[in-house]
Design brief:
Keywords: Chaperone, Cytoplasm. It is found in: Cytoplasm. It contains no helices and six strands. By secondary structure, it is mainly beta. Strand 4 and strand 5 form a beta hairpin. The two termini are 19 Å apart.
Length: 103
Amino acid sequence: MTTATKVPVKPLGDRIVVQPLEAEQTTASGLVIPDTAKEKPQEGKVLAVGPGNWDEDGDKRIPLDVSEGDIVLYSKYGGTEVKYGGEDYLVLSARDVLAIIEK
């Protein structure tokens, strides 16, 4: 995972760009989990946030609840996986974000 916060993909509307965090490699008891048994990660770091959707009148944008740098929990099968510049990203709708993880 890169440390740069600038991502070359700019989301539109209520979309966000997330970089999935790596799944745990071992269990709490120290057993190593093979790649075939790992679950798809559901946590990620928000790298970019779209401007939000327009309100019903079309006069102003409705801001999103998440911001760049947040660690979020998202729907297991939500979003679209994108590979750009050798990095894996996930483009999600803000509705696919279930929670912000505070550490």
